[in-house]
Design a protein that fits this description.
four-stranded antiparallel sheet, Arc Repressor Mutant, subunit A
Length: 212
C-alpha cells in the first residue's frame, strides 16, 4: 500500500488498549498492518474469546456496511498498527483497487465457515472440537517464538470460557497429548502439531483424535 495512504489512515495502539467495545456506535473499520488483536464477546456475564486476528485481517466492517453497533470488543495484544477507514474511505479504496474488495469477501467467507464449525460443535456437544477451536486461538495469540502456555492456567481458562467441567477438559488435553497434538514440558503445554489441531476443529462426524 502506498506510503501516503499509510500516513493518512494509520493509527497505533499499545498492548492492552481497547480498539473498540461491544455495544458502541461505530463508523470505522480497521485493517491490521502489524501486531495481533483479540476479539471477544460477552455472553451470560462472561467474556469469551472469539478469535485472534493478525496482519492482513480486518474487523469492524459491519459498523460501516450495516451501521450497527459493535458486536464485539477488540483489544490489542501487542503493539498494533491499523489502517482505519470510514464508509467513504473504504468505498474510495475499493474503487481504486477492486482486489481489495475480493480480499474482504474471501476473509468474510472464511469467518462464516469458522462460525459454522463452532455452531456444529455446539449442536453436537463436541467438547474436543470446541476445546481444539479454543486452543487454536490461544496458540495463535502467543508471541513469535513462544510455543507453550502454562498448563494449569490453560486448563482453568478453557474450562471457564467453554463452561465445561475441568476434569473433562483435563481428559481432552491428555488425549490431545496422546495423539501427538500437544506436548507437556515441565509446567508448559506445547503445541506440537498445528495442522492436526486444525483438522480436529473440522472433525464433526469423524473419530476423535484419541482414537487415531
Amino acid at each position: 500500500m502506498p506510503d501516503e495512504l499509510l500516513q493518512r489512515f494509520s493509527r497505533k495502539y499499545a498492548p492492552g488498549a481497547a480498539i473498540c467495545r461491544e455495544g458502541e456506535e461505530g463508523e470505522e473499520m480497521y485493517i491490521i498492518q502489524t501486531g495481533k488483536v483479540r476479539v471477544s464477546k460477552r455472553f451470560a456475564g462472561k467474556n469469551h474469546v472469539i478469535s485472534v486476528l493478525e496482519k492482513g485481517d480486518f474487523f469492524g466492517e459491519m459498523a460501516i456496511v450495516n451501521r450497527i453497533q459493535r458486536t464485539a470488543t477488540v483489544t490489542a495484544i501487542d503493539d498494533v498498527e491499523l489502517l482505519v477507514f470510514d464508509r467513504e474511505g473504504l468505498q474510495n479504496m475499493i474503487a481504486r483497487n477492486t482486489r481489495i474488495a475480493l480480499t474482504i469477501i474471501d476473509k468474510l467467507c472464511r469467518r462464516l465457515q469458522n462460525a459454522h464449525l463452532k455452531i456444529q460443535h455446539l449442536v453436537k456437544k463436541d467438547a474436543e472440537g470446541l476445546i481444539a477451536l479454543h486452543l487454536s486461538s490461544v496458540y495463535q495469540e502467543l508471541p513469535v517464538g513462544q510455543t507453550s502456555v502454562p498448563y494449569q492456567k490453560c486448563l482453568e481458562e478453557v474450562s471457564f470460557s467453554l463452561e465445561l467441567p475441568m476434569e473433562e477438559v483435563r481428559k481432552t488435553l491428555e488425549d490431545l497429548q496422546g495423539a501427538g497434538v500437544l506436548g507437556l514440558e515441565g509446567d508448559g503445554l506445547r503445541l506440537v502439531d498445528r495442522e492436526k489441531l486444525h483438522r480436529i476443529t473440522e472433525s464433526i462426524g469423524k473419530e476423535p483424535a484419541s482414537s487415531s
